[in-house]
Specification:
The structure holds two protein chains of two kinds. Chain A has eight helices and no strands. By secondary structure, chain A is mainly alpha-helical. Chain A has two domains: about 110 residues, Rna Polymerase Sigma Factor, Chain: A (Orthogonal Bundle), CATH 1.10.1740.10; about 60 residues, Arc Repressor Mutant, subunit A. The longest helix of chain A is centred in the first third of the chain and has 22 residues. Chain B is mainly alpha-helical. The chains are: A mainly alpha, B mainly alpha.
């Protein structure tokens, strides 16, 4: 399965970088499932919500997708970011965790269903300036398009895109190593 | 926020573009070279007898050492700023510069009578070396730390230290054109200390500023 995942994910991410939004959504969904499986296996005792780490990893993948070389395999890149974010999550919560750096996680990766719980990302969202917060939550929580959000807020689509990009970058930064 | 909702937001931002990391490193290298050149020519500048010096092995060997350091550190830092990339091969190349210096030191010890060793090692202006290599290198180090922030180093302290080695290699290349002490004994001692200062500053910078 790993070889298939690898080929499919790298194809999707290449298409996404070339501007294909549907491919990007597909890439993010599949990546979320892989990362969720990885993180759940690593978090054996409580204290860290796996879904928080999934979301922090997705954000990091998004804001750092220019660090992926299109001719390099995508799975090692994804798992390296997930591992970094997982270690970071434990560090922030003042816990220690043993992680086998060389363990090949992707072999065991199985898609898993997400759970709902309190999210760090909500706190980060609350910390955004009002303009960015209303754009990010309109598009994410309310599921509106860029155009609908622009009409609702009475601003241009470009302004919505800028606020969205800055808002996401700011949330990602808040998750940066403390 | 559900993960599903987050994905909607990320997808809506799919068209935002950042400079690919590989290009960003070349831009950073160019900018750092300009910064180092400006610092060098505005302060000490090349030594007046640089043309005749070009014909001596000892003078030229300094550039071989410093450029080997800069080239290997540049290759390694590009790997370290890319998640999941294997650093094994690039790390192995880091031994080249110390190895070359080591060989040159041995050759120098054979070429020069032992009574001369001390004088060559201490040289005529080691304090200028220890001042100006870090001084020329601090601007490039800031540029490279900024490039690291653009990247995604999973070992920020190590990556910061390599940024220090890279700026040290660059700064030492310029400084070597000023320095009158061409003996490998001098280079192995004082250049190494000066570069180590930058590597330590880089590690601290990586710890403090490279978060993502």
């Amino acid at each position: 399965m790993t070889g298939k995942d690898e080929a499919e994910l790298s194809r999707l991410l290449r298409a996404a970088i070339a501007g294909d939004e549907r491919a990007y959504a597909d890439f993010l969904h599949r990546t979320a499932a892989l990362v969720r499986g990885f993180v759940r296996r690593k978090i054996v005792q409580g204290g860290v919500d796996p879904e928080d780490v999934v979301q922090e990893t997705l954000l990091a993948i998004h804001v750092k997708r220019h660090t992926w070389r299109e001719d390099a395999p995508v799975l090692p890149w994804v798992y390296a970011i997930a591992r970094f974010k997982l270690i970071d999550a434990f560090r922030r919560r003042g816990r220690r965790i043993e992680i086998e750096i060389d363990e090949i996680a992707e072999t065991f990766a199985e898609p898993e269903v997400e759970t709902v719980s309190e999210r760090d990302i909500n706190r980060a969202l609350d910390g955004l300036p009002p303009a960015q917060r209303s754009v990010v939550s309109a598009i994410s929580v309310d599921g509106r398009s860029i155009g609908e959000t622009a009409a609702k807020l009475g601003v241009s689509e470009t302004a919505v895109r800028v606020s969205l990009h800055r808002g996401l970058a700011a949330i990602a930064k808040r998750f940066g190593r403390q | 926020m559900r993960t599903e909702d987050l994905i909607k937001a990320l997808d809506a931002d799919a068209r935002s573009k950042e400079m690919p990391l590989a290009s960003a490193w070349w831009v950073a290298f160019g900018a750092a070279a300009v910064v180092a050149a400006a610092a060098f020519f505005m302060t000490i500048g090349p030594r007046p007898d640089i043309m005749p010096a070009m014909h001596t092995m000892r003078f030229l060997s300094k550039f071989v050492f410093t450029l080997a350091l800069a080239a290997s550190a540049f290759a390694l830092i590009r790997v370290l700023s890319t998640p999941g990339a294997s650093a094994a091969r690039a790390s192995a190349w880091m031994v080249v510069a110390p190895l070359l210096v080591g060989v040159a030191v041995v050759l120098e010890l054979f070429a020069v009578p032992s009574a001369e060793w001390g004088r060559r090692l201490v040289g005529s202006n080691w304090y200028i070396c220890l001042t100006f290599i870090p001084l020329i290198g601090i601007g490039p180090l800031a540029v490279f730390l900024a490039a690291l922030r653009h990247g995604a180093p999973t070992r920020p302290v190590l990556a910061g230290a390599v940024a220090g080695l890279l700026s040290g290699g660059l700064a030492a290349t310029f400084y070597a054109a000023h320095c009158f002490d061409d003996s490998p004994l001098f280079v192995a001692t004082w250049y190494t200390i000066a570069v180590a200062i930058l590597a330590m500053l880089g590690a601290v910078g990586g710890r403090l500023f490279v978060r993502w």
